[in-house]
Fold:
Amino acid sequence: MLTPAILFYDVVLVVHVLAVVLAFGVTFTYPLLDAHRVLFGLVGAVFTPSERRLAQLAARDLQAGGARSAEYEQEAKKLAMFGAMAGVLIIVAIFLMTVKPGA
Structure:
């Protein structure tokens, strides 16, 4: 007889692993971020260049009076979108590693 593919235990395990990642993950992530090899190259391809661009735009905007420019807001939205996408990738990976559907 086949059992359900995903049990309540599996869901609780996913929540537990996500909580551990949220609580302690940053400690282990910083060295990886410096190496620019995290999340399929998103750090080197998107995050680092966007953060540098945001720093340049913020400095420029401060010199021009302090209000954030539309260009800054657009770059910040792009960075936030990729950050959310990276978060979803991490959650999906943790889910697949803990539940192991089809195994």
Remarks:
- The chain has a mean pLDDT of 83.
- The CA atoms of residues 18 and 94 lie 7 Å apart.
- Residues 70-99 form the longest helix (30 residues).
